[in-house]
Amino acid sequence: MTAQAPDRERVVAGRAALELRGCEVRFGDRVALHRVDVAVHAGELLAVLGANGSGKSTLLRAAAGLVPVSGGSVTVAGGRSERADVAMVFQHVHLVGRRSVLDNVCSGGLGRLPLRASLVPALFPRELREEAMACLDRVGLADRAHDRAGRLSGGQQQRVAVARALCQRARVVLADEPVSALDPVAAEQVLALLSELAHAEGLAVLAVLHQPQLARRHADRVVGLRDGRVVLDGDPAGLGEAVDALYAAEVPA
Ligand SMILES: Nc1ncnc2c1ncn2[C@@H]1O[C@H](COP(=O)(O)OP(=O)(O)O)[C@@H](O)[C@H]1O
Ligand SMILES: [Mg+2]
Predict the structure, then answer these.
(1) Which of 88, 102, 214, 224 has its CA 20 to 30 A from that of 206?
(2) What residues have CB less than 8 Å from 202, skipping those under 6 apart?
(3) What's the pLDDT band for 81 if we cut at 50, 70, 90?
(4) Which residue, judged by its Cα, is nearest atom 26 of ligand 1?
(5) pLDDT tens for residues 127-136?
(6) How many CA atoms lie within 13 A of 166 on its CB side?
(7) Å from CA of 64 to ligand 2 middle
């Protein structure tokens, strides 16, 4: 059924889909990111872990071009703009609850339409609706296409947000605590979906996760932040206690 999944070793070995090099972000006098290096490759789910205030959201926002970096660089492979190639998924789902699930997914593709056609859902072209339907099918929700988005469960709404990112044809998905508001079963489903999309379709997924256990189960690689610095980067299975130390009050001497 999975047609021609890309050879994972090959895509991972290639150029990074998203690369932050020596990134520094300041808020006034406060340095929120200190020379951070992070690369995410097509075909992998990279989890970002760290205590509250360690800079996880700032890292994602810098990657998306939503906060300026005062040093270093952010590179998105693919040749289009960051805006087109990078999609964001948030903890609290940003869907228009009174519109249909399908219209919400279509909105991911509006950047490709002329302005007039993008303003009125009734004018969305058939090709966009068909593409959105295929994206919904990909997340297992084609049968809910015509329901109002607000009627879906939290986990289903988060999968609709993922379908919207697919309809945007994003190559990089940045997810800031995408499962923190979900019950454990829905959280597993959404992470399994993100990981499958990374592996089967070659998306580069960077997800901030609240629980190390979820990272161990679903991530291909883990980056740990502490006080705005990358303090670990590796295979989730091999990191062991180093992950738990991210949340300790003091760095062990
Ligand atoms: N817009 C902002 N203005 C000022 N300080 C900010 C802003 N956003 C984040 N910070 C500060 O930057 C640091 C990192 O925040 P954040 O990236 O939100 O951490 P995390 O997502 O890991 O909890 C914190 O000290 C936070 O207070
Ligand atoms: Mg945060």
Answers:
(1) 102
(2) 6, 11, 42, 43, 171
(3) low
(4) 53
(5) 999 999 999 9
(6) 27
(7) 14
Among 32-46, 66-80, 177-191, the minimum mean pLDDT is found in 66-80
Confidence of residue 78 (pLDDT cuts 50, 70, 90): low
Nearest-atom index, ligand 1, CA of 208: 21
Q: Over the stretch 34-53, which tens digit does the pLDDT of each residue have?
A: 999 999 999 999 999 999 99
Nearest ligand 1 atom to alpha carbon 55: 17
CA distance 245 to 90: 26
- Which residues sit with Cβ closer than 5 angstroms to ligand 2, an ion? 56-57
Nearest CA residue ID for atom 8, ligand 1: 58
The residue type at 126? R
Query: How many angstroms separate the alpha carbon of residue 26 from the centre of ligand 1?
Result: 10
Band the pLDDT of 149: cuts 50, 70, 90.
very high
Three-state SS annotation for 143-159 = HHCCCEHHHCCHHHHHH
- Both tokens of 84, joined, read 């087109």
Q: Ligand 2 centroid to 60 CA: how many Å?
A: 9
Q: How far apart are CA 119 and CA 41, in angstroms?
A: 34
The ligand that comes nearest to the alpha carbon of residue 226 is 1
Q: What does the chain come to in residues? A: 253
Ordered structural domains, the chain, with CATH: 1-78+171-253 (3.40.50.300), 93-168 (no CATH)
For atom 12 of ligand 1, the residue with the nearest CA is 32
Q: How far is the CA of 230 from the centre of ligand 1 (A)?
A: 15
Q: Which pair of tokens denotes residue 69?
A: 């970096």
Q: Which residue has the tokens 């988005």?
A: 149
